[in-house]
Each structure stands twice: as C-alpha cells, then as structure tokens.
Amino acid sequence: MTQPVELGPKPLTLEDVHAVARDGAPVTITEAAREAVTTARGHIEELATAERPTYGVSTGFGALAVRHIPPDRRAQLQRSLIRSHAAGSGPEVEREVVRALMLLRLRTLSTGHTGVRLSTVDAMAGMLNAGITPIVHEYGSLGCSGDLAPLSASALALMGEGMVRNARGELVPAAEALAEAGIEPVRLAEKEGLALINGTDGMLGMLALAIADFTRLLDIADLTAAMSVEALLGTDRVFEPELHALRPHPGQNVSAARMLAFMRGSEIVASHRGPDCTRVQDAYSLRCSPQVHGAARDTVAYAATVADRELSSVIDNPVVLADGRVESNGNFHGAPVAYALDFLAIPLADVASIAERRTDRMLDVSRSHGLPPFLADDPGVDSGHMIAQYTQAAIVSELKRLAVPASVDSIPSSAMQEDHVSMGWSAARKLRKAVDGLTTVLAIELLTAARALDLRAPLKPAPATAAAVAKLRETVAGPGPDRHLAPEIAAAEALIRSGALQ
C-alpha cells in the first residue's frame, strides 16, 4: 500500500500530490495541524458573535459583501454559497485532477488559517481516503477567487449533495457514497463554505501532474531523438560534453549527455565515422535536439519552483492570522500558476515540432541516406509511415494553437467586483490536452525510428537504442507490408506511458 501523506506544518511536495492523485495514497492529519485548526476556529466563533461584520463570517460574498447576515441565516448562507457556486458545465474532469484539488484544499484547511472546524477537515480527509470523487465539470473556473465551480462541486459532495464516483468508479448520489463510507455529511458553519472553495487548488493540481508528465516525456524525447539521429546516419560528436559546457544551460547539458549515452556503442554510427564521410553537419532537428529539449527542461524546472512555492502557501480569503485577526487579501488570484501553465505549453509544442521534423526526415528518400521511401516494404504498393507523419503534423499544429496563452485574457465578473481574473484553470486544461498530444507525437517518432534502425541491418544500433526497439517489438512487429497502423501508434503510446522505456 502507498505510504500515507501527512498534512501538517510541513509543506506538501510534488511527489505527495502524485501519490494521492494518481496512486490513491491515503492522507492523515497531524496533531499539530489539528491543534492549529481548533485554535483558528475559536477566533472565527468569537467574530461570529461580534457586532462588527466580518467578510465571509457575517456578510454576503463578492459584490454582495455589503450585506450583513443575521446569525440565524448564516448556516443557510454557507449552504447557499456552495449550491449556487457549483455551477460547472461540460465534460467530467478526470479523477486524478479532482483528487489533486481535494488534497490541496485539504492542505490549506489543515494549516489553521481558514477557520473551518476540525470535523470538516476530518470529513474531507475521509472522502479522499474512501476514494469518493465528486463530479467536477470542465467549465466554471476563471482562476480567480479560486477555482470556484470545481471546488464548489467538491464541497457540495461533502454536504451530501450532488453526484460522485465511489471507489469502484460507479456514479452514485453523494449521500449514498458518504453513508457507505461511514462519513456524516457536513452541515456548514460560519466561514466554512468560503474556505472550501477559495483556492487555486485545481490549477495547481494540474500543474503538479503536468510537471511529472512533461519531465517523463522529455526523457522519452531524448531517447527517440537519439534513435532518429542514429537511423539517419547522424553524428554523435555534437553531443560531446565539452561542446555543451560552452553554453552552460543545465537542461541542455542533461539532454546532450543522455543522447550521447544512448548512442554509445552503435555500429551504425561507427560505420560512417571515418575520413570517407563527407557530411560536415547534420540538420538542425538532429544537431540541436539537446538545445530544444534542454530549454524545455529548464522551463519545467522554473514551473516546479512556482509549484513548490504554491504548495507552501495558504490560499483563502479572508485568512485567520496567528494573532487571531481575520483579514481580506488577494492571494486567491491564480496569476503565478496560470503563467507557469501557459509557459509550459510553449516548449511542449516545440519539442513536438522538432520530433515531427526528425520523423519526416526519415521518411523522405532524398534526405534519409539510403532508407526506402516512407520506410515502406514495397514503395508504391505500400505507403509505410507516410500517414503517421500526417497525424504528427496535425497534432503539432494543434499544439501550437494550445500554446497560445490563456492568462492574457480576462473577463470581469461578479458585477465588476472581480474585474481581473487569471484564467489559470483554462491554461491547465489545455496543457493536459497538450501533454497527450506530445505523447502521440513521440510514439510515432519511436515507431518510425525503430523501423529505420531495423532497416539498417546488418549493422546493429547502440545497446540502449536496441533495447528500446526490442521493448517495442514485444507489441509491435518489425518492418513488413503495410498493416493497420493506428493500433501500433496506440501500443507505442501505451509503452511510453508505462514507464518501461525510462
């Protein structure tokens, strides 16, 4: 069983998010966190009885914050907030995203800066540990005042309302799933409704998952690039460390070293290393792969820095300070996360673009240095990988569109009270789609490069690239007459996602 993730004074890590969201790790609330939550709740209950109105405790919300709410209507105020804000629409969001946003909201609740009751914290932890996943919809968040509609869907389930998926993946009423898990639905008290929804947790969760995915795909890109360079009779000398030391970007040096290691011991590379070789320089898509992949690695490193800061943050409005004061703030604005999400979409598109160019080169008889047209078994009768490159090109074109930033847009809401928003949720959703696109582009390069290496026989590829070909050949046959290609692309995608090529 995956080790529990503790929620307390210690910040979460990207690995913690992955463990809970994808691996189903349980969560526990530390004693220090329990004490902090109890102390902060005491401050909220004092303010609830005070004559002076406090936002989120005894007032309305957003543009309606000017209305003072009498004590006998405040429980209804919190329930109405959740019901009205659970206004999402569109397709169902992935389970891992919902679990990530629940974990991150729970972490903020556990800091003792939101003023929720300990029973509410325990109920939310119970939902996560029982595998109950609220139904969250694609549209509804502007990435400011928090991911309001997505988090409200989660809070609605905590109240025993709306629909969820249980641990078996069945769509059931929330009340039924809570009862099965022995969890009492939460009857929200002062401040709790607002605390449950006023965070950047959805976009941050998707950033954390995208960082893990893109890092893995960059490792794959180094491998498929090395296979392509080898298959195209390119040189490995451009990846030597002394050349990359002249431009000390960390990611570039990592990718160059990896590509050099992948090609070490190749009979194919050795076959054209002598003085008879007249090729002075390889094309940019081969020679400059470490520069492109490396710049992407450095961008991921920056995004990870942003994510780490957010994982150490308390996102709520208002917040309960250490001295008991409850203060309004703007920390719910998603700009820091939105920019990082948009930033990642740019190098992701470019890594796919350079991979497509390498693939196309292997299929062009005028540039492939002795390989058959389109790597076809009987060119003219067979088309080989011709249309696989079309698929790559279509995806790369889409990735370029997805690289257009969402965070430069803003549509005012809440009667102009919320007059500038981040659109970070939208940035995160398009990045997830882009990650899937890059996976397919690299899968097609893997298929094509493996076939090209096979066609270089009797010369043998490097041990590392040969191992990748052998792994692929467990599910995809080698060169031969045309076959249904779509299942082979899907098999290569599955191989990449499995981690077996790492």
UniProtKB/TrEMBL annotation:
InterPro entries, per database record: Aromatic_Lyase, Fumarase/histidase_N, HutH, L-Aspartase-like, Phe/His_NH3-lyase_AS
Q: Where in the cell is it found?
A: Cytoplasm
Cross-link named 5-imidazolinone (Ala-Gly), sites: 144-146
> Where on the chain is 2,3-didehydroalanine (Ser) found, per UniProt?
145
Instruction: Please name the GO terms that the record assigns under molecular function.
Output: histidine ammonia-lyase activity
Provide this UniProt record's keywords sorted from A to Z: Cytoplasm, Histidine metabolism, Lyase
What modifications does the entry list under PTM / processing? Contains an active site 4-methylidene-imidazol-5-one (MIO), which is formed autocatalytically by cyclization and dehydration of residues Cys-Ser-Gly.
- EC numbers: 4.3.1.3
Which enzyme class?
Answer: lyase
The answer, when asked if Lyase is one of the entry's keywords, is yes
Protein name in UniProt? Histidine ammonia-lyase
| Organism whose genome encodes this protein | Lentzea miocenica
Name of the gene encoding the protein in the UniProt record: hutH
